Amino acid sequence: MEKFKITFYPENKVVEVDKGSTLLSCAISAGIYINSSCGGDGVCGRCKVIVKKGSVLTQPTGRISQEERKKGYVLSCMSTVQGDADIEIPPESRLGLDRISVYTKAEEAEKGKSVIGEDIFIHSPLATKLFLELSVPNQADRISDLERLYREIGKIKEMPIMQTGLANIRRLGELLRSSDWKVTVTLGNRNGTTEVVLIEPRDTSAKNYGVAFDIGTTTLSGQLVDLNTKKVIGTKITYNKQATFGADIITRIIYAQKEDGLEVLHHAIIDGMNMIIKDLIDEHDVSLYAVNCCLCAGNTTMIHLLLRVDPTFIRRDPYVPTASFVPVIRAAEAGIKINPRGLLSCVPGVSSYVGGDITAGVLSCGMNTTEKLTLLIDIGTNGEIVLGNKDWLICAAASAGPAFEGSGVTCGMRAVKGAIQRVSINPKDFSVKCETIGNVSPAGICGSGYIDLLAELLKTRAIDKNGKFHSDKKNKRVRQGEQGMEFVVVYKEDFDLNLDIVITEADIENIKRAKAAIFSAASILVKHMELDFSKIDQIFVAGGLGTYLDMDKSIIIGLLPDIEKSKFSFIGNSSLVGARQALLSLDAFNKSQEIAKKMTYLELSVDAAYMDEYVAALFFPHTDKTRFPTVKI
Amino acid sequence: MEKFKITFYPENKVVEVDKGSTLLSCAISAGIYINSSCGGDGVCGRCKVIVKKGSVLTQPTGRISQEERKKGYVLSCMSTVQGDADIEIPPESRLGLDRISVYTKAEEAEKGKSVIGEDIFIHSPLATKLFLELSVPNQADRISDLERLYREIGKIKEMPIMQTGLANIRRLGELLRSSDWKVTVTLGNRNGTTEVVLIEPRDTSAKNYGVAFDIGTTTLSGQLVDLNTKKVIGTKITYNKQATFGADIITRIIYAQKEDGLEVLHHAIIDGMNMIIKDLIDEHDVSLYAVNCCLCAGNTTMIHLLLRVDPTFIRRDPYVPTASFVPVIRAAEAGIKINPRGLLSCVPGVSSYVGGDITAGVLSCGMNTTEKLTLLIDIGTNGEIVLGNKDWLICAAASAGPAFEGSGVTCGMRAVKGAIQRVSINPKDFSVKCETIGNVSPAGICGSGYIDLLAELLKTRAIDKNGKFHSDKKNKRVRQGEQGMEFVVVYKEDFDLNLDIVITEADIENIKRAKAAIFSAASILVKHMELDFSKIDQIFVAGGLGTYLDMDKSIIIGLLPDIEKSKFSFIGNSSLVGARQALLSLDAFNKSQEIAKKMTYLELSVDAAYMDEYVAALFFPHTDKTRFPTVKI
After folding, report:
1. Which of A158, A239, A253, B537 is 20 to 30 A (C-alpha) from B321?
2. Which of A142, A603, A604 to mutate to test binding with chain B, by most B CBs within 10 Å of its CB?
3. Phi, psi of B537 (to 5 degrees)
4. d(CA A140, CA B281)
5. CA distances (Å), B216 to each of A156, B305, B569, in order?
6. pTM value?
7. Candidate from A144, A309, A603 with C-beta closest to B320
8. Residues 96-155 of B with CB under 8 A from A
């Protein structure tokens, strides 16, 4: 087939591609990830690029304005290569807003410390290192090298079923003798047995690391943990590069059915994970070989894609995943780059739409151990709700979209340094006061920032209860933008930015749908158990929204139920915390299995009442004012 | 490097090789295995080839006679390629005497049936197949595919620790649905856990096969077994192709230390095993995919080489192997071609010089379960002796050489069709009566044939008690041959053979050393326990000597102790029988582990008395006539 050269700017990155390839796929092969909520179907209009030079065949679309068309804008998913071309990717089309550093230290690590149940588990990490000084064989003691090793391990730990791979045995004879019978073994908890994962010369037992991952639809978070001291060494967050292929799980599953789709989605996840690992170990001067295991919590589709398991059946009635409890495997089998013999384990999930991330959340907040009636609300692209206590657990999932994760909204960003997370608006002159994570110049708005912003816009009546802007001449910040009406949160001049930071009516609509999905799921779940919110003893709110969450404002917008504020706790990324707990403790991992087995799942899509609830919640705070008695707007 | 073409005759096989390669290595790369007891050191003189044409540089050697030199004979190990050449490999230099079919059906299968303890084990093969008709998921039953599979298995069998590889999970979703939820799982016993080895569509449970192997230094025996019915489907025997690299274990270990030596030896074993498997499945119309496991018994060095584990330390003081108990692995990891996910297990060994073959022998004769004081004598290249009963077991090993396996002797051959296994000589005219295995034309002499022949030569005084020919004019069969004095057993004219079948003084010397090594090892072991042979209740004699063994004649030559004949039983290849038992029964496999743990090992090389015993036994039947009171020669 005819080949052409495509050059992407400003990277100046060249790729050679077949005639007829879409610009979207060219960008991916150049390692540039572009926004695309619809997965390349020409619907969402997020994947705009500018053709600077060369021959591109593009299809007509209403997503490109006349003005944009003149400047050379096309939808990259609907435009195919017909010759060499130069393509510019504008900042707003880039996944993860390249205006900010995608990677920054997150505050989740600190947050984690205050989470309930953090230290109640026995310290028995997924991988343990033991330094052994073996007795030297002699005529009176001639058992084989392998048995000698097992015998010594047995003196320290009782391990009924011990396994070793052939690769270790092949190296063993020479290794033991050249290291003067002093070696360090790495033992892994592998599906109820103990595996001798690794045998190294001399004493390396002080260097034993693992990585906990939360694999979200929109966001990947990874945390490097010292398995000996239980200390968090560092945390990194990045966008899930799969977002190029669609914003939600369903679009991804559909994409996986395309030729090479599964392979492409699998690589998008593991590339992100491997980048996080590499950044973490480089930054903290840890050797790749000292990282012996990964523990991942993620929704069921993400875990399927991580393991390159076809997720097709997750979205086919009756919505059955291939595996909820996946075995511990070698990380290399999934393409994860840690020690080549290191292990990969996943927190078990409950069902197709309630994954290991929520099991990990339950584990980390400890609701499975308390008498108190507890509600866990995990705010993510897939919003998950769990209700129960030590006796029972029931859960539901709601497709909320990525707005609260700062994706799919005009100036959204991850809850990282530079993200606006608190907002107040002066009702007199509509002047805005912002607080950013890290107290640096603002770069965008994260989930908690949007909640504050919306509550403030409501309180100041800049928007009505439907989310539309009031025409108020006093309010100079409301203006007509390219995408319709918008409110300027930060003027670019004030912080030397390229663009103003704004919130559009479309953004508000997005957030309204997200909060409605979550609130109505919680509401249905509580009703299903013949309870109401007032009976709940405590509510944990989880998610990567920010380092802080204003409960009052969350109630004002109708995201959270209007009950006593003291019952709420914001626990951050509970999935990551749970993954870390399972990484550090076999006890915790076993508990996560119990949780997953115990939890029942309520399928909302078959619940007739859910759609009614959802529609009723498409209002601020709600169409039924009596359900938010304390909200005065 | 300069390349040349070497053509081997009569195969007419061409290989392209580097200048300077030895003809021995060229033959190996052409897939032709040549005799070489010394492993290519120019010492044994067994690797003669004839240079028909072309340029070969050869070193002077006393192993080639002047007459041979004129005909173009060279030692292939001492001759290097300098240009294109045509090389003929004479029959006597070929491993396994190509005059006969190397593969024939062996009688071991039939022999096995009569072995003690054959059917006392619970039927629980290394791999079990279960046909499952899974319930179809519905809204009330939405557990994942993998859990559904486990649940169904759990209804049939209790399996506390269940494992499945990622490869199976990746195929599971599609497989279950396309096969209408009717699948066959293959479950393997893997190191104390149960592995779901394989999942196949529909009911294939009737086709479940395994292969038991005895991996000897000189001989490979493989047996295809129906794991459902416990029936032996077929047996094949071939020479261990490693014999090209040396006749005994020590030469092989030294060879393994050469560059690529380990790789070459590993391939020589697995090539032989794969040939046996292929022949067995082709002949019996069994699919490769229906062969799910292998169970191997072999001496410690062979098991190391099978697994490509460096055997170096086996021959370094204090003689410690890398592993005596090797884990169950995937057969493909060792290069064994059965179902790609099939398992490979090995009977555990005791020490560097007492391997799983002898553990399997003990298992098969059941001496570990009886009150009777029992002696097991396994006659092989490495002769192994075990003494004991249900309370204790002690063993020793003696390097006997391959003579009793029909190797390293002029007209020796495996105990297969055409092998002379019984001989009687008329004392009046020295006429010879032979009986061959399968009652076909004689092709050579197997171990039991040599024992008979030697006893008859002694009884008729054709040889003296030192093994030298008497000059007796009446005996026309004794003559001067190319290798010194020899006795013609079969004249080529009588059966239209290419060569006479003879026994030379060098052959007799070889057999004398072999029998002396075994007898003296047994003798020392008995003395070590402060016993004498008369106290022994039963003696099992094992080995691939033939389908029959004449105990009287074995005593006459001094191979076996001179005690009551009724105490002896010949049990054939007990290692293969034990391997089959372990293949068919986890119970038997576990017993083999107990045996290996229980058995103590007496190292003869450090026993001062052993050399004295050995030298005293280098006589027919023995220098001390009082130890063989019934022998009148």
Report:
1. A158
2. A142
3. -85, -35
4. 46
5. 38, 12, 22
6. 0.85
7. A144
8. 137-139, 142-148
Q: What does the alpha-carbon distance between residue B598 and residue B522 come to, in Å, rounded to a whole number?
A: 19
Give contacts of B396 with chain A, Cβ < 8 Å: none
Assigned CATH class of B108-118+207-346: alpha beta
Contacts A335 to B, Cβ<8 Å: none
Locus of tokens 């092709």: B443
CA A123 to CA A601: how far, in whole Å?
Answer: 31
**Eight-class DSSP state of A136:** P
Which part of chain B is CATH 3.10.20.30? 3-93
A-B Cβ pairs (cutoff 8 Å, strict): 148
State ipTM.
Answer: 0.86
d(CA A412, CA A450): 8
CA angle A192, A196, A200 (to 5 degrees): 155
Which tens digit of pLDDT belongs to each residue from B455-497?
Answer: 999 999 999 999 999 887 888 999 998 878 999 999 999 998 8
Report DSSP letters for A552-572, one per residue: HHHHHTTSS-SS-GGGEEEEE
Residue A119: band (very low, low, confident or very high) from pLDDT cuts 50, 70, 90: low
Tell which A residues from 268 to 327 touch B, by Cβ distance under 8 Å: 307-310, 312-313, 318-327
Q: In the CATH scheme, what is the code of domain B127-201?
A: 3.10.20.880
A190: nearest CA in chain B?
B163
Beta strand A182-190 pairing with A127-133: antiparallel
Residue in chain B nearest A606 by alpha carbon: B139
Q: State the SS3 of B258-269.
A: CCCHHHHHHHHH
CATH of A3-93, one of 3.10.20.30, 3.40.980.10, 1.10.10.200, 3.40.50.300: 3.10.20.30
The mean per-residue pLDDT over the stretch A78-83 comes to: 93
* CB contact residues (below 8 A), chain B span 345-364, against chain A: 351-352
Q: Write out residues in chain B with pLDDT < 70, as ranges.
A: 37, 95-119
B137–A320 C-beta distance less than 8 A: yes
- The CA distance from B509 to B615, in Å, is 13
Q: Check if B163 contacts A (Cβ < 8 Å).
A: yes
Q: Does domain A211-346 have CATH number 3.30.420.480?
A: yes
